[in-house]
Amino acid sequence: MNRKSDRMADIARRLGVSKSTVSRSLSDSPEIGKATKARVLAEARAVGYAVNPLASALKTRRGRILLVLVPRIENFLFPMLLRTIERAASEMEYTLMIGYVAGDSRTDDRLLDFMYSGAADGVIIATGFAPDTLAERLDRGEMWPAAFVMTPGARNDIPSIALDDYGAGREVYRRLRAEGYKRIGMVSGASGPTAVGQLRRNAFIEAAVEDGAAREDLVIFDGSFRYETGWNAREFIAKASDRLDAVICGSDEIAFGLINGLRSLGVSVPRDLAVAGFDDILFARHFSPSLTTVRQPIEEMGRLAVAKIVEMVERKSWSATEMLGFEVVMRESAPAGGGEATPPERSHKISAPRR
Amino acid sequence: MNRKSDRMADIARRLGVSKSTVSRSLSDSPEIGKATKARVLAEARAVGYAVNPLASALKTRRGRILLVLVPRIENFLFPMLLRTIERAASEMEYTLMIGYVAGDSRTDDRLLDFMYSGAADGVIIATGFAPDTLAERLDRGEMWPAAFVMTPGARNDIPSIALDDYGAGREVYRRLRAEGYKRIGMVSGASGPTAVGQLRRNAFIEAAVEDGAAREDLVIFDGSFRYETGWNAREFIAKASDRLDAVICGSDEIAFGLINGLRSLGVSVPRDLAVAGFDDILFARHFSPSLTTVRQPIEEMGRLAVAKIVEMVERKSWSATEMLGFEVVMRESAPAGGGEATPPERSHKISAPRR
DNA sequence: TTGTAGGCGTTATCAC
DNA sequence: GTGATAACGCCTACAA
Questions:
Q1: Which domain holds residue B211?
Q2: By CB neighbour count within 10 A (0-12 exposed, 13-18 middle, 19+ buried), where does A5 fall?
Q3: What is the pLDDT of residues B256-292, one digit of tens each?
Q4: Which chain B residue is nearest to residue A57, measuring alpha carbons?
Q5: Which residue of A54, A136, A141 is in closest CB contact with B54?
Q6: Which of residues 288-317 of B touch A (CB under 8 A)?
Q7: Closest protein residue to C5 (Cα–C1')
Q8: Within a domain: residue A59?
């Protein structure tokens, strides 16, 4: 293996200047002569010299690296999130180190050691939990640039950039009701590992109860965010289908599973029952029927997360939690105005609220 | 910000030993007393000390980091690939630095500078092209641990771990014929940026011609690997549908687009026409109809890529290109034996080969 | 505006 | 088996 590149000293010697001069030229320091700087840059470009980021980081304790922690769980949103984070980071001249961590906490410490050593500048956590070693340090009062993203954070000394899941849950319910769907059920992701499923489930329940439904009459099936949950709910929902006009699912994947499951039982979506999802993953528009769902502002989340971390790093300032807006996208699986088409004999009597 | 951790010197002082002793204990060097080593490890664990990877890498020119270069293009396989690579790397105690590069070559040099400086040990390239700065160095005769993955490599001084796309293309054709489908067309991804589309297209053509079809009678629509290509092909294929029993698509996404497109024109898959995809992305089994396709051995690719790089790094040995096997998965969109059900009047007269 | 010197936290080489 | 010492390649007071 031949990996001997020039060092600053080589460039300096060749140009008859000192290492400092080269260093200053390359880091466009203000205290450097325009002419010498030009000479140095020219030479550097000519021989393909690049500053050794390792040595530089060791000295300055700034590596221009961002850590990103994602859960190993299958989720179609993470790839998108990663890409937007990378793009934003790249624009600010940061690179990404990635770790897929087991799920809740216990992450690979090797990754975080980069941060503690100064190689990495901050960490974006998409798992909902601060890894143990970070939590310990924060508890000790140390401060590290970190942010939760796409999930409500587990601690409030770290900002969190996430969808307003509760608000979105209520809005889907409200919107479906406005479109004429009267009796609405849910297949939730509340049994999964994240708090998001609970938020969406609670939002649904409270919106329905405020709307006049009886808490104990609500049709709810609980599971994780995965496809299998929807599939497993098929009989439960099919049996309740004469009491329902629409079903809100905790995720798009659940919705896919439910729609396919119902189809296998002869229940057609949206003809017999409308189904709405959550997230607007790439496939939602290509599924058949295309999915009515809530769009997550992934792009915005990625950009904001990076911006906040970089702000914390470079200005040493602190940053606040951010709750992002959402958008309900009406498609075929629960078409706008679709509830009006419900045959009269299926029209629903909403139970009066009990105390 | 409070980020002062202990250094080796601190541990050493506290234990009344030298830095060397601490270093040796922590890197389980053979030349160290069992007792002292135990003391050091205990102390290190007690105070939560971890070796500074930056300083270590600067000295040893080994950072235990692997670069991964992925294209920014949407492709449902990359997330899976990344995860398997990360898992394999993690088991060998490497971490991942990721760069989404624009597409063909021009990548972010910052990323590769980590490798050139010794921080990163090798690079896994999933874009099909060696980035410029790497190519230059290789041309100069330097050697860097690198491997192409999931795509035939652009240079043969770097190993490539990929599916036998040509073989797989022929096998899909052969398999469909064996299942009774007589007249087969293709919607290819050959106009896309990678060579893979071409390989699959050529395989199809040659298999068909050897099978007795006339080259100029073959029904082929060319596009990229994306959903839109399938959708755009819908009218072309629908018009030719009375001359076809099945269509092979260059990717699963194309197949989804085609199936949806045909449905919009009243052509039902597989009743009127069978459709097969390529890749077996996660969604292939959940689509309706579920997709007959060729499974890429993503897991195997990820593991093999990491194993090869690590081998190159640690044993300084060289490694050879690897062509992986595949598997045709028969599902609803082109069911096994489905070709037999073709009504007799649609049976096909295969043109004799012309010279 | 430029040069000199010292150190960032490790590991490797050499003694003992 | 253990300890002193010199790099690794860069940045940054401080001095000129």
A1: 165-296+328-350
A2: middle
A3: 999 999 999 999 999 999 999 999 998 999 999 999 9
A4: B54
A5: A54
A6: 288, 316
A7: A20
A8: no
